[in-house]
Structure formats: C-alpha cells, structure tokens
Amino acid sequence: MSVQRTRRTDPRRRERIVEAAVACIAEHGVAGTSHRRVAQSADVPLGSMTYHFDGMDELLREAFTSFARRISATFAERLGPAAGADDPDGVIDALVDLIHVDLQRSSAEHVLTYELYTLAARRPEFREITQTWMHASREVLGRAFDPVTARRLDAYVEGAALHIALDPDPQPREQTRTALRLLAGR
C-alpha cells in the first residue's frame, strides 16, 4: 500500500519571510539579522530561506525594497490631492505633517531607514533602492514644484525628520513650516 503525502502549500511564505526580515532588521540591525533569526520570526523552516532567496543579500534587498515602497506610498498618500495637497501651500502643510507625524511614528522605521542608508553608503548594489526611493519622493513633489525645488525639499524632509527624531528638544512645527516655505521660495 502506497501512502501519498500531501504537500503543504503556503502561498504567502516568501512575503512572510520578507516581513520578518524587515522586523529583524529593525530589532537587531543588518549585522544581527540572520537566516535562522528570520526563519524563526517568520515561523518557517530554515530550509525555506535558501529555497526562496539566493542568499542574505537578496533577502536584504527584498526587505529594504519592501520597506522603501511602504514609506514612498505613505509619502505619496500624504502629498496627494485626496489629502488636500494639490497646490504648493497644501504640499508644504502636508510635508509638515509628514515630517512631524508620519516620519516620527516608529523608532523601528528610523532604524530601518538609517540601516538602509548605511548599507547603501557601503555597498553600491543597495544604492538602487535609495535612488528609487528618492526618485519616487521627488516625482511626488514635482507635481507642485520644479525639479530643483523638489530635490531641495526632499533633502530637507530627510534631514529634518532625522533631527526631530534624535533631538531631545526638536524644532516645532512652525519652524519646519518656515524652513519649507523658504526652500520652496514662498
């Protein structure tokens, strides 16, 4: 008598592994993220890691790409016409909220952002992720501003978010609004 084994399907396994990798990086940093740790967090067999990913670099690229897409979507949503940001002044108001609310909501997101920046600074193959992320931000800002102003505002958003996150006495919203208006020539 032959026993037929049923194969367990898990259509979301790869996605769960990527989500677990993002969480592991946020908690342990890139250096502390391992296949074993991610597999345990995703509740998958360790062999799934090598089945779905060629190595740690591919997993890190997928994790950071997923994270950058999520942040870019938040940026686009906050600055979209549905949010009332359909003119330069509306975009500036939305940027203030983005800097003081959205980009301050999670210390895990700060860690992920700076882990990605550090990795991209050291390893050119990861720069594509940051370049795609910057391009997406500038494209959204380009709906209301010329390319030079969009680049200037995008750089300020990154810097101001970092300062607000790490400064024990962060700048108030009105100071952020004033700086953005000056950078936008308003």
UniProtKB/TrEMBL annotation:
Cross-referenced InterPro entries: Homeodomain-like_sf, HTH-type_TetR-like_transc_reg, HTH_TetR, Tet_transcr_reg_TetR-rel_C_sf, TetR_C_31
Annotated DNA-binding residue span(s): 34-53
Residues forming the HTH tetR-type domain are 11-71
Q: Which Pfam families match?
A: TetR_C_31 (PF17940), TetR_N (PF00440)
Q: Which UniProt keywords apply?
A: DNA-binding
Write the protein's name: TetR/AcrR family transcriptional regulator
| Lineage, uppermost ranks | Bacteria, Bacillati, Actinomycetota, Actinomycetes, Kineosporiales
